[in-house]
Design a protein that fits this description.
Length: 162
């Protein structure tokens, strides 16, 4: 799929992954909570949440540092971030992105494609007849997408849905 090639050309999540891998665990939690990119700025799609609300999430995640550090799978990690979505503004996108960035630091990655609003649009566009769930197997998508990791597929679908 030419579009996948185009998206991967700019590095996709490679730079973000490398950035989070190099941070201390404490820094990873702090920066992940606000969606901080290697350039030191908040990711565009996190800006609508704002630093104040993201910081509330960070303060609560700090209390769970030991629990987070002991996560051996992404499912447990996102379970922790999902518990904070009751805070106004911290929804599925914040939960997934925060868990993914912390996961990069811990070497823990999703084994499903996580679907939130932006990804949902991409799924409808690329596979209009597919039944959409919060977590989906890569095997449900076109063969060209199955060369991607689960998090690359999520990123691709989010961009493709725009």
């Amino acid at each position: 799929m030419a579009l996948i090639d185009d998206i991967n050309k700019y590095g996709g999540l490679t730079k973000i992954k490398e950035f989070y891998e190099k941070l201390s665990f404490a820094e990873a939690i702090e920066k992940a909570s606000s969606g901080i990119n290697p350039n030191g700025k908040m990711d565009r799609h996190m800006c609508h949440i704002g630093y104040k609300v993201c910081n509330q999430g960070y303060e609560l995640l700090k209390n769970d540092e030991n629990k987070i550090q002991n996560c051996l799978c992404f499912e447990k990690l996102i379970e922790i971030t999902n518990n904070l979505t009751s805070i106004q503004g911290l929804g599925d996108l914040w939960s997934y992105d925060t868990a993914l960035r912390i996961g990069f630091n811990l070497g823990v990655y999703p084994n499903k494609v996580y679907v939130h609003a932006g990804v949902r649009k991409g799924v409808k566009k690329i596979a209009p007849n597919i039944k959409i769930k919060r977590k989906m197997d890569l095997s449900q998508f076109p063969a060209e997408m199955q060369t991607l990791t689960h998090y690359e597929a999520e990123n691709f679908l989010c961009i493709y849905g725009k």
